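Justification of resources, computational component.

The compute hours requested in this renewal are based largely on the per-chain cost of generating structure records like the one below. Each record pairs the submitted sequence with a full structure-token output. That output is archived, and it is also reused by downstream analysis tasks.
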Amino acid sequence: MTNNDPVKRFEELLRMNGVVDDARVTEVDERVKREFDEGYEYAQASPFPEAGDVTKGLYTDDGYWDAEPGRGGGTG
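The structure output for this chain reads:
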């Protein structure tokens, strides 16, 4: 292994040990790209946060994360 990229090195290790094949690597690559693209599109379509919200959720004890956050962030 001569690649210094840890992700590629791990991929090579998995291939060498027969854990994954080309089809599985392609499947995972496509899924990651699709999820990234969906997240990017969501972010681009979302409004900018309010300036006063810049510190919300910064600390665990500010109450922001007490409820399960949705796509809009916490509830605090």
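The chain has a mean pLDDT of 84. The chain is about 45% helix and 0% strand.
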